[in-house]
Amino acid sequence: MAVIGELIKRAIDFTGMITSDPDPVHAQEKVLRNLLETARLTAFGKAYGFTQILESDNIIEAFQSAVPVHDYDKLHGEWWHYLLEGHQNVTWPGGQQYFALSSGTTSNSKHIPVTDDMLNSIRRAGISEITNINAFNLPGDFFTKQILMLGSSTSLIQKDDHQEGEISGISAANLPTWFGGIYKPGREIADIPDFDEKIKRIAQEAASWDIGCISGIPSWVELMLKEVINYNKVANIHEIWPNLMVYTTGGVAFEPYRKSLEKLFAHPLIYIDTYLASEGFIAMQKRPDTSSMALFPENGIFYEFVPFDNDHVDEDGLVRPDAKAFSLANAEENVEYVLVISSVSGAWRYMIGDTVTITDKQKAEIKITGRTKHFLNVTGSQLSVNQMNDGLRVIEKEYDVVIKEFIVAAVHRGDDYIHKWFLSCDKSPDKVKVAESLDNTLMENNKNYKVARGRALKGVEVELIPEEIFYKWSEETKKLGGQIKIPRVMKEPDFLEFAAFVEKNLGSL
C-alpha cells in the first residue's frame, strides 16, 4: 500500500508541475462572462439585461450597475421562491434537484439552490484540495489512508420535485464513485440524522478504520473524537488511528478549539483551513506557511468586496443600495470587506454574511474576519468577531482556561446598555475579574470600544458556563452537527431567551 501511496503522491506532484494557478484577475472576468452567457435567457438574466451587459466594454462595471446586491431574503422573496414552487429557468438554466438548508444567523431558515453546476464546482474544488495537499509535504503512506468526513446527514428530505439537506450532506451524497473506497464513515452511518447516534456508531466502528484525515466543524469533531476515545477506552485518538495526520477544518474559527482538541491527540496534526458555505466552496488553504485561504478564481464563482463600514453597510448588517463594490482587480489588501458572490448556483451579487480581508491579492488569498451580523455596534463599540476572539485568547492565557464558545449582546440595565457575555469555561475563575480583564483588553485593542465605554456602554458582565449548555441549546433550538454554527452576537430579545435557557438547564449538568 505504501508503494501505491508513493505513486499517487508522485502523480499529484507531476500534476502540480504541469499546471499553474491562473492569473486571478483575468480568471475572474472570464468567470463572470461565462456566468452571464449561461444565464442570459433565464428570467433573472432577461430582467437585468445580461445580453446587453455582455456587449459592454467593461462587463464588470456594467454588471455592478445593472444588478443590485442581494441578501438571502431579497433573492428568495423576488426569485428563489419560484424554484421551490417548481418553476424552471429562474436564476439559472433548468430546474432544481437540491436545496441546501441553512439556519445560519443571517436568516432563520434558508433554502439555497444547489444546481448540478454547483455540485461540479464543489467537486472540482475538492479535487483541487486533494491535489494541492502535496504542498504540505505528507509521506506517500498518507495517500493510502481513509478520510473521515463528519457532516450532516446524507439521508436527504424528499419534497415534491426536489430534495433538501445541509450542503455537507448533499455533497457527501454526491461523492464520485471512486471516492467511496476511502470515505468514512460510509453512507450507512452518514445517513443517520441524529448526531448523537451517528457519533456512537462511528465510535463502534472506529477501530476497524485507518483514518489519515478528518474533516468537519471543530466543535462537532471534538465531540466525535471524545466519543471514540471514551468508547474504546484509550488515552488519545492516535491509539485508535495512529496514521491520523491531517485535519481539514472550516465553518468557524479554529484557534479557539486548538488547545482542547490537541489534548485528544498524541501529537499535533497538520491543519488545513477550508471555506465551504451553503452557497459554494469559496476558498481553501493552499500552503503551509500561511493561515490564509486562496479563492478559486476560475471555478464558477465571481467574487466582489464591499467595504465593511457605516458608509457601505447599515445597522442590520446589510449592504446599502448605493454601496461601492470592488472586484478582485481593484480591491485592496488588509481592508475589511463584506464578501459578495455570483455563482453557478444562480446566486447573483449575493452577500453570504461573511466579512473578509484580502491578505495577498496576487495569490487571491483571504482571511475570514467575522459575520456581518456577528458585529457588536449597538453603542458604537464596533467590535468584530476577530477582536472578540483575540480578547478571549488573552483571557485564556491570563487565567489558564479554555474558552471555545461564547455569545454576547448589548442589553439594557435600566436606561443604559451593558455588554453581557456568556463564556464556556473549563474552570471557575472570578467572573468579575474576567469581565474586567476582557473589558481592558478590548479597550486596548479597539479605540471605538474605548470611546463607547466612556459614553453609552456603561458596563461589562460575564457569566461562565459549561460548553455543554451551548451544544444543548443548539440541539434543542436548531440541530446538532453538520454546518450548524453557534451565533456569537445576538440581539437583546434573542439573548434574553438564551439566558433563560441557561438558567433553566444549568442545574441539570
UniProtKB/TrEMBL annotation:
- Pfam families recorded for this chain? GH3 (PF03321), GH3_C (PF23572), GH3_M (PF23571)
- Which intervals of the chain form a coiled coil? none
Signal sequence: where?
none
InterPro entries per record: GH3 (IPR004993), GH3_C (IPR055378), GH3_M (IPR055377)
| Entry protein name | GH3 auxin-responsive promoter family protein
Q: Where is the GH3 C-terminal domain?
A: 400-493
Q: What residue stretches are annotated with the GH3 middle domain? A: 298-362
Check the record and name the PANTHER family matching this protein.
Answer: GH3 DOMAIN-CONTAINING PROTEIN
A GO MF label: acid-amino acid ligase activity
Would you name any one GO CC term? Answer: cytoplasm
